[in-house]
Amino acid sequence: MLEGIMLLWFLLAGVSLLFVAIDIRKTPESPVLKWGFVLLTAYTGLVGAFLYVLGCREPLPGLHERYVAARWRQTLGSTMHCVAGDGVGILAGAVLANVLSLAGPAEIVVEYVLGFAFGRMIFQALFMREMAGGSYSRSLTSTFIPELLSMNLLMAGMVPTVMALRMQIASGTDPLTPAFWFVMSIGLLVGFVIAYPMNWWLVANRLKHGMMTVRPAGGMGAMQDHDRKTAAHHELHVAHDGTVESKSAPRPPVPVVTLLSFAALAAGLAIASRFAAE
């Protein structure tokens, strides 16, 4: 039964990945978010393809800007960007932990460190440095808190899910088996769901970007112009360095939300430890 489920999962994932990889080429989205949807679909199969069609794919020519302006789609883009980037590091950490015979807390630390490092330093700070006026160092600074909060919630959902599935699937820890990739895929999918509310708060307070529109003739300049117009609509202003800043402080305050994110992470780890103890 389980083998049949996994076979169906991977078949649908392959078809979904092929569809998204081909279809997204004509979607007027920023390149990094295009790659993000491809990676998300590789992780979550049919679910990723469904989210791409429902949340990003332009319904009719010229409507992408208005289509992705909805808050829930902006949040979808933010969460997808987080899971896509962090997921690469997390998967690399899971494979490395197996090679080094690490388990339990040691494996979680490796996955967290690599996931956070890749997500922040590559997918956020490097690929989105134009949002910080082209400065990589400034982009690193501005993405630390958003990446931390989103990563904490992602891990809070992923770790107990992976632990629970590994208790039922003996080969779920071996990267050379399909079961490993199935378990990690489901874990990242649950992490995506748990991280979504945090990304809603981050997008609402302009601490993270959501979906964007990049028309071929305008390139990144078109994207920045669209962001500036969006900022004006939400009563924001653009600083001299090109970053978008809010006129009002986030609510709840960032320190409070940060504590809540660590509380959620601790709860997820506590649930995972109970599964491990059984």
Tags for this model:
two-stranded antiparallel sheet, single chain, mainly alpha, 278 residues
Structure description:
71% of the residues lie in helices and 2% in strands. It is mainly α and 278 residues long. The chain has one domain (70-277). Strand 1 (236-238) and strand 2 (244-246) form a beta hairpin. Mean pLDDT is 87; it is low at 219-246.
Number of helices: 10
Strand content: under 5%
Instruction: Say what oligomer this is.
Output: single chain
Whole-number total of structural domains? 1
Q: What structural class do you assign from the helix and strand content?
A: mainly alpha
Q: Reading side by side through the largest sheet, how are the strands ordered?
A: 1-2
Question: Major sheet, described briefly?
Answer: 2 strands, antiparallel
Element-by-element helix/strand order = HHHHHHHHHEEH
Instruction: Report the strand count.
Output: 2
Q: Approximately how much helix is present in the residues? A: over 70%
Specify Rg, calculated over alpha carbons: 19 Å
- Straight-line N-to-C gap: 24 Å
Q: What would the principal axes of the Cα set say about the shape?
A: globular
**Unreliable segments (pLDDT under 50, ≥5 consecutive)?**
219-246
Average pLDDT, to the nearest integer?
A: 87
